Amino acid sequence: MDRTGGSGGGSDRRQPEESKPLLGEMSAPEGNKMGAAPCRRALLHCNGMRYKLLQEGDIQVCVIRHPRTFLSKILTSKFLRRWEPHHLTLADNSVASATPTGYMENSISYSAIEDVQLLSWENAPKYCLQLTIPGGTVLLQAANSYLRDQWFHSLQWKKKIYKYKKVLSNPSRWEVVLKEIRTLVDMALTSPLQDDSIHQAPLEIVSRLLSENNNLTTQDHESIIVAIAPLLENNHPPPDLCEFFCKHCRERPRSMVVIEVFTPVVQRILKHNMDFGKCPRLRLFTQEYILSLNELNAGMEVVKKFIHSMHGPTGQCPHPRVLPNLVAVCLAAIYSCYEEFINSRDNSPSLKEIRNGCQQQCDRKPNLPLRLLHTSPDLVSQEATLTESRLKPVIVTSNEIHVEVERNNTANQKMTAGVGNDSEPNLIDCLMVSPTCSTISIELSPQADRILGCYVEILKMLSDYDDWRPALASLLQPIPFPKEALAHEKFTKELKYVIQRFAEDPRQEVHSCLLSVRAGKDGWFQLYSPGGVACDDDGELFASMVHILMGSCYKTKKFLLSLAENKLGPCMLLALRGNQTMVEILCLMLEYNIIDNNDTQLQIISTLESTDVGKRMYEQLCERQRELKELQRKGGPTRLTLPSKSTDADLARLLSSGSFGNLENLSLAFTNVTSACAEHLIKLPSLKQLNLWSTQVSALQLRLRAGTSAD
């Protein structure tokens, strides 16, 4: 009786496993890298068939007890066979039946299975497997050849994985362990089974091995990483393995393993990960990998090349998950820079308090051992004295983090005036209640400072890509940074570049994210406006933000009222220095009667007349006002419909032929007018309704053109 000859799956499958190493021959010498292994592994597939890994299924079972020397005689005796139907489950340790009766009353441990073979000799039962166990044989009969082969490969896989868990759980010599790991990887890569667990199971075995053995050398670490590298090409590393990779990145950031092995792994994580919340160690591994790139000689240049490789050479990144994942990594890394400081304080100020200079810190009672050091007992009397120019600083020390908060009398006056009104202002309506000019300086440890610099620089890189900027602006609109970061001068100064890029982008979906995400919350416009906690210039960024917002349907009376209420002083100062946007703002405030106080109006007029551009725009405003009053005096019709197919020239000719000061309703439906007609429409002082149905101009284009014409 020939068990190894014949057809039915190839002789290598039916060779008794006792005559082979644990998982067959090594695919490469011990000293070789795993990079060339896949070429040889492809040759091991016999027929190219693929099977899904079975966990359970229905099959016929027959158990024959016999001495091995009489096996052939018993197998050829058909009258001795009795088949039982069973629903078998391939567990991690054994094969068990859902109905433990008859042949399968007891489960069969994988350690008790000596061999798994396909029956292919003469008179053998059709579509059968033979499991050799001590003292007998278990025959499994499937419905067809494909199902038989599926059971065969699944049983082989379960049996070998079980053996590897046993072998690698008690390592003796690491040279032997490394060989077994390479053979395990080779088995996973060449298996005809297709299932997520085929590659994950070896990774989990290696991960458990590394977590239980902390005395490995750096060379052992790198050898293991190189050995399992082929499995990581299409699979995320498990959590324990991520922790091992993080440790390697921290201890040997300049190792070539980081570049050659970890780079494709991190690229796959950034391209395919859907939620770092479910696998936070993947995010930590990505974070440590980027920091290790920053430790190379080229530093941020290497990081920049990596970001560019993630975006791709074209103008549109083909992977939609890359940007959200990169931003998530950056936000987590920036938070970690301030985490020690945040955890050491129960008095962490709210964003409103930071905006108001942390005035309320002394009113709180710290209850941690590490607390704010109170100033002298006469602090209250000093705060009440308006002649004092400075107060004693409040100092917070948390290991290597030092925070010094200085308050001036202006801050205390505003704090006193605000007592009894703790509600947050509607920041969409009033934009920003100007914060005090208090100074908050935070000094981080050298390591935290390097991390902060690296990831803020990555945010700058992301903002330079046009296709990423809308999504980046949307992700950053809620200001997803800790309050301590917004109080850190270095952080807000570095992040200013990103906000500037948003302010320069002409797309409304980008620069509209400068405003607060909802009422009662601060936005970047508020934080970087004069008097804001992040403003470190004389209003240049503020002027840029106002300019881009004014050009995108924000030229409304409500917007101007908010500026007049909270930012009139900075607007007048910038207009006095010749900023054209602020000159336009002041002219619009006069034109729309935003300012009621006569003295303030005269001051605005004086400011406008102090510069050439202001003087010119104020004269144009006065001329328009005279023309409007003249039109209103003459009167005219209240409703007018322009004939269909009329052009801009026809509209101009009609409006110049008579008096239309009382015109309230104008219909341009089904005409050929364009946005150029805005320069004529803005001269109609009483116009309330405008019909643009079936024309070539939209309301947005008309409003933008009207704003340009008004200039």
UniProtKB/TrEMBL annotation:
<feature type="compositionally biased region" description="Gly residues">
    <location>
        <begin position="1"/>
        <end position="10"/>
    </location>
</feature>
<dbReference type="Pfam" id="PF23066">
    <property type="entry name" value="PH_21"/>
</dbReference>
<dbReference type="InterPro" id="IPR032675">
    <property type="entry name" value="LRR_dom_sf"/>
</dbReference>
<feature type="domain" description="C-Maf-inducing protein PH">
    <location>
        <begin position="50"/>
        <end position="168"/>
    </location>
</feature>
<protein>
    <submittedName>
        <fullName>C-Maf inducing protein</fullName>
    </submittedName>
</protein>
<dbReference type="InterPro" id="IPR052813">
    <property type="entry name" value="CMIP"/>
</dbReference>
<feature type="compositionally biased region" description="Basic and acidic residues">
    <location>
        <begin position="11"/>
        <end position="20"/>
    </location>
</feature>
<dbReference type="GO" id="GO:0005654">
    <property type="term" value="C:nucleoplasm"/>
</dbReference>
<dbReference type="GO" id="GO:0005829">
    <property type="term" value="C:cytosol"/>
</dbReference>
<dbReference type="InterPro" id="IPR056429">
    <property type="entry name" value="PH_CMIP"/>
</dbReference>
<feature type="region of interest" description="Disordered">
    <location>
        <begin position="1"/>
        <end position="32"/>
    </location>
</feature>
